[in-house]
Amino acid sequence: MADRTPFFASLRWKFALVLALFSGLLMLAVVVVLEKNIRQSLIRENIDKGIGIARGVAFNAEDPLLTGDDLYLFSAVKNALRSPGISYAFIVDRQGSVRAAADMAQVGRSYALPAEAQPLREGDGFRVLRTVREGSAVLDLEIPIFSVAEQPVRLGSIHLGLSEQLISADIASMRRRLALLSAVALVAGSVIAYLLASIFVRPVHALVRGVKAIGEGRLEQHIDLKRRDELGTLTTAFNEMAESLRDKEFIKNTFERYVSKPLATEILRQRDSLRLGGEEKEVTILFSDIRRFTSLAEQLPPTQVVAMLNDYFSRMIEVVNTNNGMVDKLMGDSVMALFGAPIPLGDDPLRAVRCGLVMQQAVAAFNLEQQSRDLPPLEMGIGINTGPVVAGNIGSAMRMEYTVIGDNVNVAARLQGIARPGEVLVSEATYQRVRDQVRATPLEPMTLKGKSRPVGVYRIEELTTAGPEA
Length: 470
Known about the structure:
By secondary structure, the protein is α+β, with helices and mostly antiparallel strands. The protein has 2 domains: about 1-255, Beta-Lactamase, CATH 3.30.450.20; about 260-465, Alpha-Beta Plaits, CATH 3.30.70. Helices cover about 45% and strands about 25% of the residues. It is built from 11 helices and 14 strands. The protein has helices at about 10-60, 60-65, 70-80, 165-215, 230-255, 260-270, 295, 300-320, 350-370, 405-420, 430-435, and strands at about 85-95, 100, 120-125, 125-135, 135-145, 155-165, 280-290, 325-330, 335-340, 380-395, 400-405, 425, 440, 455-465. Strands 7, 8, 9, 10, 11, 12, 13 and 14 form an 8-stranded mixed β-sheet that branches. β5 and β6 (about 155-165) form a beta hairpin. The protein is flat and about 85 Å long. The termini are far apart. About 30% of the residues are buried. Pfam families: Guanylate_cyc, HAMP, sCache_3_2. It is found in: Cell membrane. This is Adenylate/guanylate cyclase. Keywords: Cell membrane, Membrane, Transmembrane, Transmembrane helix. It is a multi-pass membrane protein.
């Protein structure tokens, strides 16, 4: 008995102590590495969500502010408050008086934030300040409301209060779960470490590698360990945490499904410069449309029409991606593509024109295959225009899509409407940006539907390396 190693001096105790310390440090590393990033990510998500809601309200609040339609303004405020995490909403006129609020007693009062409000974030057309209301931390999001006249005039602003309680609750919940898992791991490890030391080493190393990988941004981690003990619980929690982070990362990676990989890489590289809430920028818009498709579709069975369209769209989308454009939407038998949004690459008009010519060539190759299968050919017209538009997330809090809006989008659509089969028509604005790289035929200026002045139109014949036209 005298030769027996005291329990507190035994390797089993030492290993249990080391394992307990390691488990605690591991969970502390998880908290330190992830808590700050998760908090910042949640704050950014709340701000981006609030910007989308506020811009939607501001976009539709111009006329009610001018005409005094307070009923509509109150309805807009109530709709904004339905979104989780929004504690208050105010519409304020240019004099700083509250025009609409959930609390009728606030109407007519002067809106002002406490003096201790701290600026948190400011961007193109929005400002976020952190303040305290009724004992709770709130992010006050301000979006100005402008008229849409030729010289915009600020009519007022909308203020949304984004509560930090949900963020704090999520962080606290994460801390509790990690603390619980740490306690379980400590107790279980201390009791059975001397029996299962060799078995524990391998999965613990896997967890360490997984935590380091997540800290480096590699969120595809998954540890396949089928155990029913505390270590299995810890591994399951780790996999659930990794899956949750992958879901958040999925929003950013979704762009790769709609744009070419080089453009997607450029978007991710410049993600700090993106303003997904909406911004004005110069974009080149391309519209293409199949001529007489309705009558053609009546001649074929529906399944064959769908198969033909899928084949056609696959080729068109590939051409757009090859030219680093973004397919904004597919509308029936039409394609709308953007060049210069969300990230401008410098030669956006030229890439759009090249894309249009290659699309016509792709249709010609497609028709040869159609002819070999005794199927009718497709004829396509293309219209291209360049100019300032508003680009960003358009929609509602429940569903949004990245797109562009503005008069220049309509011009591109009108040019596509007058293009004959096989033609690529561009506006004067686009032509002036590519005139040194193309051979084009000027057409008679056309008065497009919805335009008061004639628009210069050019039919692109081919790309050329020749110098400027005489």
